[in-house]
Model the fold of this input.
Amino acid sequence: MIRPTHPKKEIEQTLRYAEGQGWRIGASGSHAWGRVYCPYKDAECRCGEFCITSIWSTPQNPGNHARALRRVVDNCTAHRNRRDADGDDEE
Done:
């Protein structure tokens, strides 16, 4: 099933980045536009802070919201550990 495209281009680019990293995007249609879900089921990752994050449909500053979503993906403990183990440091 194809997810809907986010109306803000900065956020859509970040969502595509997250999907490329294995994260799942769920468009909820309720208060938030959707949610981004961590792909890992590790105990170290399920801290509750970075595992599920809301995606707002009309944030006050789309660029800041896109950067915050990217930080969630990049700062995921399990994602960072796997990336470092693979030697694939993209920063």
